[in-house]
Task: structure prediction
Amino acid sequence: MPTLNRPITGSIVAMVTPMRPDQSVDYPALRRLVDWHIAEGTDCVGVVGTTGESPTLSQQEHCEIIRVAVDQAAGRVPIMAGCGSNCTAEAIDLAKFAQSVGAACHLQVVPYYNKPTQDGLFQHFCAIANAVDLPMVLYNVPSRTVADLAVDTVLRLARIAGIVGIKEATGNMDRALWLIREAPQGFAVYSGDDPTAVALMLCGGHGNISVSANVAPKLMHQLCKAALSGEVVSAMNLQFQLMPLHKNLFVQANPIPVKWAMERLGLCGGTLRLPLTPMDEAFEAVLDDALRVTGLL
Result:
């Protein structure tokens, strides 16, 4: 079972999937975003996760986005490929594809809608790890999946070969600290919650899988670098600067606001796929203000 030479650390963007007005995937824009993130200092590009609208992508599109991202990055930064599914067999197929095209690792979300037991979750992730020779990062986001991957289950999984980390997106620092304290050496704990990411990293976490990094990659890279180096004052100053962005990128369901912000900044179009719809006009002024006070406009 191959492993990463060392855990991926720093700012990992949970990147949007750019789309044309007709809702087709905009692959040239995807390539431009990968290049832009590399130039801005993003440490790892995560594709086809929740922010990438994975639930509405066909399997062919899902795979092509991973392939294009790996191709465009060309080894300059690692690609973390979202391969999660509530169907174990589909998750295995996606992860095998990610491995075949050169992704550095795959992100596996807790199966949604099915509401599996903790043993079912354990067996799901073990089955994927046993079937695919590519490092796996678990992804716990119960606000989306309903099912919650318990700390004890994570610690059992952390001892399985090939499972190398977790994106902990609950914002619950108590459980994050237990994971950091109890997980075996080499198991990475990443924040999946921008408002609490600094605290997690200062307490021994490995990085931040970030929505805010879609529009502020340089600032997020600087923040992660400072936090991982224990530079508390610098990290907190950057966090205070970014707080309006963290808050207002969630005025509606992610990725509705961040796609609006990216179009506002000229980074890509703001098109979303149904059932997601464009951001309500009532929120435009507050998000525009957040971009300005953060220094992005």
Observations:
- The radius of gyration is 18 Å.
